[in-house]
C-alpha cells in the first residue's frame, strides 16, 4: 500500500496562503537557486533543496486536492502538476461540464472515498494530500502517514491554515528530515499511531 504524505509550503506561522488565497513570497524558495528542479528550467532551487525535492516529486503517483484548489488553478489546464499521473479532487460537486473527462482528474465526494481512489491509482507510489482543509480532514480521519512542510521565512499573521480546521490534537514523531535550503527549511514528520 502506498504512503500518504500531507504536504505544502508554509509560512513560519502556519499559513499556506493569506485570507485572499494569495501565496505572496511563500514560493520564493523555488527561484532562490541555480539548479533546475524540472524540465522547464523555470523552477531553480539550491542543491540541498533539489536533492530533497526531486526524489520526493518522483515518488508521487497521485495528488489529492480540494475543489477550491482545483478551481483556483483551473485544474492546471487539464495536466496534473509536476508530472504527477493523477489528481483526485474532493468535491461535493461533479466535474465541470466543460471539463474533458479523459483527463487524469477524478472527482470524488468525501475524503475517505477520495483516499480509497487515490490509493488504488497510486499503487505502491506516494499519495500526496494537499495541506489545508482537505489535508486536515484526511489527517483527522487517521489516513496520513507523514506530514511534510517546506517552511519559508514569511509571517502572514492570518490566512489559510496548513492543517485547515483540525480541532483535535494529533501527535507527530520527531522530524526525520530536516534540510536547510535557500529561503526554506524542509521538514518531515511521521504521524504517531
From TrEMBL:
Bacterial bifunctional deaminase-reductase C-terminal domain sequence ranges: 86-178
InterPro entries assigned to the protein according to its UniProt record, in alphabetical order: DHFR-like_dom_sf, RibDG_C
SUPFAM superfamilies found in the cross-reference section: Dihydrofolate reductase-like
Protein name according to UniProt: Dihydrofolate reductase family protein
Organism listed in the record: Nonomuraea recticatena
Amino acid at each position: 500500500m502506498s504512503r500518504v504524505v500531507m504536504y505544502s509550503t508554509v509560512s513560519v506561522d502556519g499559513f499556506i496562503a493569506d485570507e485572499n488565497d494569495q501565496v505572496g513570497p511563500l514560493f520564493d524558495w523555488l527561484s532562490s537557486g541555480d539548479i533546475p528542479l524540472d524540465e522547464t528550467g523555470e523552477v531553480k532551487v539550491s542543491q540541498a533543496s533539489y536533492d530533497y525535492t526531486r526524489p520526493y516529486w518522483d515518488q508521487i503517483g497521485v495528488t489529492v486536492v480540494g475543489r477550491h484548489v482545483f478551481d483556483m488553478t483551473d485544474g492546471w489546464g487539464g495536466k496534473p502538476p509536476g508530472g504527477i499521473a493523477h489528481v483526485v479532487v474532493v468535491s461535493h460537486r461533479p466535474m465541470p461540464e466543460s471539463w474533458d473527462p479523459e483527463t487524469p482528474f477524478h472527482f470524488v465526494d468525501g475524503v475517505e472515498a477520495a483516499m480509497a481512489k487515490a490509493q488504488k491509482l497510486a499503487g505502491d507510489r506516494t499519495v500526496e494530500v494537499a495541506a489545508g482543509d482537505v489535508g486536515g480532514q484526511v489527517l483527522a480521519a487517521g489516513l496520513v502517514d507523514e506530514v511534510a512542510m517546506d517552511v519559508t521565512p514569511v509571517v502572514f499573521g492570518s490566512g489559510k491554515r496548513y492543517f485547515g480546521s483540525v480541532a483535535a490534537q494529533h501527535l507527530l514523531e520527531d522530524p526525520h528530515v530536516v534540510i536547510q535550503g535557500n529561503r526554506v527549511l524542509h521538514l518531515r514528520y511521521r504521524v504517531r499511531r
